[in-house]
C-alpha cells in the first residue's frame, strides 16, 4: 500500500479539487475505520481467522489516507509549514499518529489543524481498536499453544 502511495500521482488532491479531495478523504477513512471495527469485533467474538494481515493493511491504509490529505493541503499556502513531498507527508502522519511532534512540520492553517485533530481522534478510536484486536489474537494463540491446543 505504501508503494502505491509513492507511485500513484496525487495531483488531483488539493485546493484545486476540494470536492474530490474531501469526498475521497471521508469515504476512505470511513471504509478503513469500518474495516478495523469489523475485524476487532470478529476477534472479540472469537471468530477464526488471521487478523494480522487485515489489520496491518487497514492501518497502512489510514497512513496513506492521512498522508495524501496532508500532501493535498500543503498545496494551499499557509496550511502546513515545512511539508513539500510525499515523504514529508508520510513522516508528518507517522509523527502525528505517534503523538511525538518535533515541530519541523506543523499545521498553521485552520483546515490543517482540524485534520490533525481528526487524525489524533481517529488514532485513539480506530487504530487503538485495531491494535487491541491484534493483542487479543496474540494472547489467544499463545494461551492455546501453551495448553497444547495448536
UniProtKB/TrEMBL annotation:
SUPFAM superfamilies (UniProt xref): Voltage-gated potassium channels
Segments forming domain Potassium channel: 57-138
TM spans (from-to): 20-40, 52-73, 114-135
Keywords linked to the UniProt accession: Membrane, Transmembrane, Transmembrane helix
InterPro entries: K_chnl_dom (IPR013099)
Record-given protein name: Membrane protein
